[in-house]
Design brief:
Elements: E1 2-3, H1 14-21, H2 40-57, E2 64-69, H3 72-82, E3 88-92, H4 97-106, E4 109-112, E5 130-134, H5 148-157, E6 161-165, E7 180-184, E8 195-200, H6 225-259, E9 264-265, E10 276-280, H7 286-292, E11 296-297, H8 313-317, H9 322-326, E12 328-332, H10 339-355
Helix pairs in contact: 1-6, 2-6, 3-4, 6-10
Length: about 350
């Protein structure tokens, strides 16, 4: 099996797995404590969480706090709903549905256009009552890197908050400046079911999940020491390996572009995370392609919307027709992908596409 779907999820790092095991039961069976209990086992678990929080925080800008959540979707909900109800929420046309649907449900919303290159620039009008601007740092479907520094500046000029979905950026490139940043551990070799919202000092949010208020009064529920320890280990490893991982991804990108030379690239090839290759071939039946390439794990679009039968809203936003969007595939690769994986996958996919006569 060749796994090329890194935007959907990533393989768990062995270091993260080892960190988690200590807090499932531990070598002496005492790693199961509730971190919110005041006895010894609880204090040990709480200390592990705070140690992991420091590791996660090290990849964010200085001057903020990390609030652990069940994932990026919960983090984005807390940011959008918890930051107020008056005014409009402006978001780019290529945001994840966790932003789009939440912004629409929270009240007035406004869509920001993107270019054919897949970027959302600040040279467009926003509603005068905009209270929050949401622009992701790296797109999950086409990998384009957004001008978030410019958007952060524009948000300040409008006296609005700036929210960044950094799920595809965190652990891979330097995370941008913002007022709130959402991330998810399983996108950079951590465990599923744990994420975080980074909140800049001075930003006030309202709790959206009520109960015991365990996370700074903003998020209730018993924290999982095992998941958070895995998150922290993955973050520390990503920080240590960031340059090495980026160099490896660049080598994979160069080889993949050579092997898929006859395919059209969707969006920019430069303002992009090169671990995301979204390409298309005119007339391609992607469903048939995936069926005939069962040993290669790749995506026909965003994994979060798979099975809907609808063309990707991201590919539509950059100007592709329904037909072009439906003839596109996404190959995602990273730390544990080899050059041989890319070569074997390309051979299999290209052969299957040739069988279709495209």
């Amino acid at each position: 099996m060749i796994y090329l779907d890194y935007q959907a999820t990533t393989p768990l790092a062995p270091e993260a797995r080892d960190a988690m095991l200590r807090w499932l039961d531990g070598p002496d069976g005492t790693g199961f404590g509730n971190p919110h209990s005041s006895h010894k086992l609880g204090r040990q678990a709480a200390a592990a969480i705070e140690a992991a929080r420091d590791k996660v925080a090290a990849l964010f800008p200085a001057g903020g706090q990390v609030i652990f959540t069940g994932g990026a979707t919960e983090a984005l909900n807390l940011a959008i709903r918890g930051s107020g109800s008056g005014g409009s929420v402006s978001y780019s046309a290529i945001e994840h549905s966790a932003v789009v649907d939440t912004a629409q449900a929270a009240g007035k919303s406004h869509v920001l256009n993107v270019s054919r290159e897949g970027q959302c620039n600040t040279k467009q009008d926003l509603p005068d009552d905009t209270r929050l601007i949401a622009v992701m740092q790296v797109n999950n479907e086409i990998g384009t890197i957004q001008p978030t520094i410019d958007w952060h500046r524009k948000a300040k000029e409008m006296n609005a908050l700036f929210l960044v979905d950094a799920v595809q950026a965190y652990g891979k490139i330097e995370v941008t400046q913002a007022d709130m940043i959402a991330v998810s551990a399983h996108k950079f070799h951590g465990p599923k079911g744990i994420g975080a919202l980074w909140v800049r000092d001075g930003v006030d949010l309202t709790e959206q999940q009520t109960g015991g208020g365990q996370e700074a009064g903003l998020r209730s529920g018993t924290l999982s020491p095992a998941l958070i320890a895995g998150f922290g280990a993955a973050a520390a490893l990503a920080q240590e390996r960031m340059a090495e991982d980026a160099e490896h991804v660049e080598q994979l990108w160069i080889r993949a572009r050579e092997l898929f030379e006859g395919w059209e690239l969707n969006a920019s090839d430069t303002a992009r995370w090169h671990g995301n290759l979204n390409i298309r071939r005119e007339g391609l039946d992607v469903g048939r392609l995936m069926s005939e390439c069962r040993n290669v794990m790749f995506s026909a679009g965003s994994a979060c919307a798979s099975g809907s039968g609808r063309p990707s809203h991201v590919l539509k936003a950059i100007g592709l027709s329904d037909k072009q969007a439906k003839s596109s595939i996404r190959l995602g690769f990273g730390r544990y992908t080899s050059l041989e994986d890319i070569e074997h996958a390309a051979e299999t996919i290209n052969a299957a596409a040739k069988e279709q006569g495209v």
